[in-house]
Design brief:
By secondary structure, the protein is of the alpha+beta class. 21% of the residues lie in helices and 13% in strands.
Length: 191
């Protein structure tokens, strides 16, 4: 049959030499590779008794931030939900009533804000899209659960505590590059 290309190679089945036929050198060489692994640092750890140190910018469980006065920063604009490729975020907006200025920073706020952690792929797009610096991913891990409903995190889990000691530090995520980006006039939506 006429070949369509000239890429095919003729394979020659060459006779094995005596050295190859006794197999022992190949077996010894394989065993030496196996033994050499005994003395290497083990890559596995005894989880959950042992845990690895995570990077400060590891993308784990989200936090909804409060401002310096303790008011919720989220204004329920929905940009995070639109940006989310996994459609994991839902919210219901509500209007702030007189007297609630200390609770919510803007006139509109999220009465309901939910993230489905089973859908989330921890990409960080919600954090990037937020114009109010209200949502950040953190180095906290999402707990394992035994039913699907428990993975839908509402404001009771997501909003950080009002007390200073319960605030979630996200300063490591605000790198010099990120802050420089936010100062750029073209992207000046965070001022
Ligand atoms: S981290 Fe990504 S997938 Fe998860 S909620 Fe945010 S945008 Fe959606
Ligand atoms: S977290 Fe940010 S982007 Fe999402 S609704 Fe609130 S203010 Fe808008």
């Amino acid at each position: 049959m006429q070949p369509l290309t000239n890429r095919s190679k003729v394979v020659v089945k060459k006779e094995m030499s005596l050295y190859e036929r006794i197999y022992l050198p190949a077996v010894i060489s394989g065993m030496m590779i196996t033994f050499s692994h005994f003395f290497r640092k083990k890559p596995t750890i005894q989880y959950p008794e042992q845990t690895r140190a995570f990077s400060g910018v590891y993308r784990g469980q989200h936090v909804l931030k409060r401002d310096d006065n303790g008011a919720e920063r989220c204004t329920a604009c929905g940009l995070c939900a639109v940006a989310c490729p996994a459609e994991a975020i839902t919210m219901t907006a509500a209007e702030r009533k007189p007297g609630e200025e200390k609770l919510y920073r803007e006139e509109k706020y999220a009465a309901v804000y939910e993230i489905n952690m089973l859908r989330c792929i921890f990409c960080g797009d919600c954090e990037d899209a937020c114009p109010k610096e209200a949502i950040f991913l953190t180095d906290r891990k999402v707990n394992s659960e035994v039913n699907r409903k428990s993975f839908i995190y509402g404001k009771n889990v997501l909003v950080e505590g009002i007390e200073k000691e319960k605030r979630v530090d996200v300063s490591l995520r605000q790198t010099a590059a990120v802050l420089a980006f936010k100062k750029h006039k073209e992207f000046d939506h965070n001022s």
